[in-house]
Amino acid sequence: MAADLNELVAEFRDKVTVLLSACAKKGVTMRPSTGLRDPLEQGRLWRQSRSIEEISEKIKSLKLQKAPFLAHCIESVGPQDGKHVTNAIPGLSWHQWGEALDCFWLLDGKAEWSTKRLVGGQNGYQVMANLAESVKLDAGGHWPTFKDWPHLQLQKVGSPLQVHDLAAINKAMEQRFG
């Protein structure tokens, strides 16, 4: 799946375009895979590695905090199974704001997911993360915990909750995706 860069916030899209060009100049092809992600998909990803108790508690908590749409996005997707890929519930990922993008390293026409493999002495994810700083993007590969090498985001803060309150996030997500 290729991400549609036109769905991203203009400032972010412009920086990503410069970054992908800089990677290509270093001989590294990074392919955008996931950009704007709706909150239902975020709910699926968040649910897939969690117990029913944790899920129920989060839904209850969101409803009590007057964030019913965010609760709905977790509740309505039903049971999920899979590995842990996100700490962010719906609305709390910059993907829902058009300010985050995941890329994969394209080698020989295939996605290469290894952050250790070297080709020509370099790893695509490490090249992308290092170059991201030069265009003022935050690279998940440089995060101190939960390293997310394919991830880039415009914001330096980890969560929209550090910029908006939960009620405002709930309202914005419902208006955009509801």
Automatic annotation (TrEMBL):
Gene3D superfamilies in the record? 3.30.1380.10
Residues folding into a coiled coil are none
Report the residue ranges that make up the D-alanyl-D-alanine carboxypeptidase-like core domain in this protein: 8-104
Q: Name one GO molecular function term.
A: peptidase activity
Please, one GO biological process term? proteolysis
**Protein name (database record):** M15 family metallopeptidase
